Amino acid sequence: MIALFTDFGTRDVYVAQLKGAILSINPHVALIDLSHNVGPFHIRQAAYLLEKSARYFPAGTIFVAVVDPGVGSARRPLLVHTQAHKFYIGPDNGLFTCVLERELLQAAYVLQQTAYFLSPRVSATFHGRDIFAPVAAHLSLGVDPMCFGPCLTEVVTLPRTMPRVVGRMVEGEIVHIDHFGNMLTSIPSDLLRDIQPGQAVSITMHGTTQTVPFLTSYAEGQKGQLICLISSDNEFEVACTQGSASDYLAAHTGDRIVLRW
Known about the structure:
By secondary structure, this protein is α+β, with helices and mostly antiparallel strands. Helix content is 18%, strand content 31%.
C-alpha cells in the first residue's frame, strides 16, 4: 500500500497527478490518502502529523510525503527505511523528524537513478509527481531500495523544543490546532500524573491566565466552556466543548503555553 501525505490541498490537480504517476507504473497498488490539508510549507506541523498518522499503519507501508518549500533547490530527495520496516519518500528537509524519533533509522537513500523517475526530464517545481510518486510505485513492485541511489547514514532533522518542568509547572508549545480548534501540545501525559480529574489547571498564554477544569472527555464540559484533558495520543490538550479553543485563546501553532496546578 502507498499512503499519500501532502500540503497540496484538494482544489487543484496536484494530488490527481501524484496518483496518476503511481498508477501508470503499478495500476494494482492500494492508494490511501492520509491528508492533503497540512498548512502550506509548514514542515514542523507536517512532521508531527505524519508521525501521528503513520504509527497506525502496518510494516511494509510506503509513505509519499510532500511538504517541500525547497523543491528545485539543493535539498536531497530521499527514500527512508525505518527499523519498523516502513518506507518514507520525500524531501530531506526535516519532514521525517518525528517518524525517526519513534521508528528509528534503518537506512536512507538519495534518489538519483532517473530510470525510476516518471521521465528523464524532471520538473523543477513538482518532484512529488516526477520523482517521489514514481519511486514509490517501483518500490511497491519490489525494486530493492539500494537501486534508487547511494545510501546515507543520517538525514536532516528539525530541532525539538522539549517541555520544561519545574515542580507543578510545565512549559510547552502548541504543536497543532485541529479542525475543531482543539490545541494539541508538546506536553506528554506522563508529566501530568499529579493532576486529578476535576482539578483546576491554570493555563498562561500571551501573558494571560485562564483557570480551566481538567476533565476526561469533551462531553464533561458545558457547551462553550474551555477545558483541558489528555488527548487520544496521550498529550495535553486544550479544548472548548462544542467550540474552538484556539479562537477562544487567539492561539496559533508554535505559541508557548504554561500549566500550573
